[in-house]
Amino acid sequence: MNKESKILIVGLGMIGASYAEKLHDSGYFVGGISARESTVSKALGEKIIDCGTTDITKEFVGQFDIVVFAVYPKLFIDWVSRHQECFKSGALITDVTGVKCSVVYQIQEMLRDDVEFIAAHPMAGRECSGIDNRCTKVFEGANYIVTPTKKNTRTAIDTACELGRILGFGRISVISPEEHDEMIAFLSQLTHCIAVSLMCCKDSAHLVDFTGDSFRDLTRIANINENMWPELFAMNKTQLLEQMSLFEKEFSRLKEAIAADDTETVKQMMITSTERRKLFNK
Amino acid sequence: MNKESKILIVGLGMIGASYAEKLHDSGYFVGGISARESTVSKALGEKIIDCGTTDITKEFVGQFDIVVFAVYPKLFIDWVSRHQECFKSGALITDVTGVKCSVVYQIQEMLRDDVEFIAAHPMAGRECSGIDNRCTKVFEGANYIVTPTKKNTRTAIDTACELGRILGFGRISVISPEEHDEMIAFLSQLTHCIAVSLMCCKDSAHLVDFTGDSFRDLTRIANINENMWPELFAMNKTQLLEQMSLFEKEFSRLKEAIAADDTETVKQMMITSTERRKLFNK
C-alpha cells in the first residue's frame, strides 16, 4: 500500500462513508459503490469520494488496488460470488464485518487465485446508520482487528494493519478468526442480548423518572439496528449460544444463592466481580 | 421542620456524611453518631457536624427533632429495637435504606407511639464508601423517594419531602413501599445481579484490550460493595427473585430464537427494546 494505491469502498453507510472520508482526507484516490444513487451523489457532492457509481462493472471496480467491503455479511458473500470477475488482478480485498469465521473461510474458498482477501474488524460502531452519520472520530482510540488465516500473505496482513493506522485506530491487533469470534460473542453480542432482554422484560415507561445510571448504562445498547444484528448473531450462532449459556449458568448460580439465603456465595461472586472489573477501568 | 430543627445523623459513611455536610452548610444544627471515634473526630474537625459521639445516650440523642439513619438495614432495625427510649418525644425518624417493605413495617410496628418513622430512599450511591468519599453533588438531579404507609401523618410526609429539597435532590416522589421495592428490584438490584454474573462468567483479563463501551457500560456496577448488597438483596428477596425470573424468561426467549434461526422473533425483540429505550435517553 502506498500513496498511489486506489481504494474502493463498497457500501457507503456509516462505516463505509467514514472510511471514505478519512482515506480521501489522507490523500488517497477513493471510489465508492452504493446501491442508492442519492448516496453516491451525496458522497461525490461532499467530496468524500473521487468517483462513484451504483453499477458494478469490471471497468469501474477493476481500477482499484484495495477494495473494502462495508456491507452486511450476507450481501458481502453474495457480491463476491456474483461479481469477483470485476476485481483487478492482484487486488487486495478487505472488510469491516463484525463476525469472522463464517465469512472469512467462505470468501477465501471461493475467491480467484490472483486476488487476496484479508479480513478485518474495526470495532467502532455507532447507534445510528447511514452516510449522514459518518464520523471519523469514532476510530480514534478504538480497536482495529485483523484476522488472517493460513492462506494470507505477510504483505496482506501488513497492508490491513497499515490501513487501520491510516484510519486513525488506537490499537491494531492480529488474532485468529476463531479468537475474534469468541471474544466478540462474549464482549459484544452477549451484552447486546442482555440489554435487549432487559428492555423486553416489561413496559418500563412508568419507571423512567426513577431510573438511575445503572439501568441507563445497561440498556444504552438496547437501541439496536434490528436489520444488522440478527444477521451477525446468526453468523456467529455457535459461539454466541455458548457465551449465552455461560452467562445463564452464572446468573442462575447467583439467583439460587439469593433464594437459599446463601450470603457467602453472593458475597464471593461480588468480590470476584469487583476484582475482575478493576482491570477494565479506563 | 424549620431552621431551629436539630438533626441527628446516625452513621457517618458516604451517604450519612454527605447528608451532614449539606445540612450543616444549609445552617442546621447537626449531630452525628458513628461507631468509630476516628470518624466522629474527622466529622467534627472538618466541621460537617456541630456535635458527635460514639455513645448512644438519651442525653445526646434526646436533643434532636429529626433523626436520620444512614446505616445498613439490619443495624438500623437493631438500633431502634435497643435504643428507642433515647428518642425525644415527638421526634421524626427517617432513613436512607435502599429496601423498604422489610424495614418500614417492622420499624413502625415496634416504634414508640410518640415518635414517627417516615421512610425515604435517596437514590444517590457511589461505588465507594466512607466519610472521605462524601459528596453533596451526588444529590443534584438525583431521585429522593418517600415511601409512607397508612400510619404516617401528612406532616411527616411533608417534612421528609422538605428534607429531600434541602439536600438538593432533583426530583422528590412519594410512592408506596411496595411500589418502591418492585421498582428497585428491577431497575437497580437486577442490573447489579446481571453485571456481577457477567464478570463471573470468565477470567476476562485477556479481553481487556478488546473491550469496547458495551462491556464497560454493562459491568461498571460490577464494582460492588460486597458487605451491603447481599443484605439489600436478602431484604428484598421475593421481589428480586421475581424480577430475576422475568429477565431469565426473556433472555431464554431470545436464546431459543437465535438457536432456532427464528430471525423474526430476534428482530421483534430488538424493535421493542429500541422503542422502549428511547424514553430513557437523557
Structure report:
The structure is a homodimer of 282-residue chains. The first copy, chain A, is an alpha/beta fold and 282 residues long. Chain A has 2 domains: 6-174, NAD(P)-binding Rossmann-like Domain (Rossmann fold, 3-Layer(aba) Sandwich), CATH 3.40.50.720; 179-278, Orthogonal Bundle (6-phosphogluconate dehydrogenase C-terminal fold). Helix content of chain A is 48%, strand content 12%. Chain A is built from 11 helices and 9 strands. Chain A has helices at residues 14-25, 37-45, 58-61, 73-83, 101-110, 154-167, 177-200, 213-219, 229-234, 237-259, 263-278; strands spanning 6-10, 29-33, 51-53, 66-69, 92-95, 116-117, 120-123, 143-146, 171-174. Chain A has a 6-stranded parallel sheet with strand order 3-2-1-4-5-6. A 3-stranded mixed sheet of chain A has the order 7-8-9, with helices on one face. Chain A starts with 5 loop residues before the first strand and ends with a helix. The mean pLDDT of chain A is 95.
Write a short abstract of this structure.
Two copies of one chain form a homodimer. The first copy, chain A, is an alpha/beta fold and 282 residues long.
Please specify the SSE layout and strand pairing.
The structure is a homodimer of 282-residue chains.
Chain A: E1 6-10, H1 14-25, E2 29-33, H2 37-45, E3 51-53, H3 58-61, E4 66-69, H4 73-83, E5 92-95, H5 101-110, E6 116-117, E7 120-123, E8 143-146, H6 154-167, E9 171-174, H7 177-200, H8 213-219, H9 229-234, H10 237-259, H11 263-278
Parallel strand pairs in A: 1-2, 1-4, 2-3, 4-5, 5-6, 8-9
Antiparallel strand pairs in A: 7-8
Helix pairs in contact in A: 4-5, 7-10
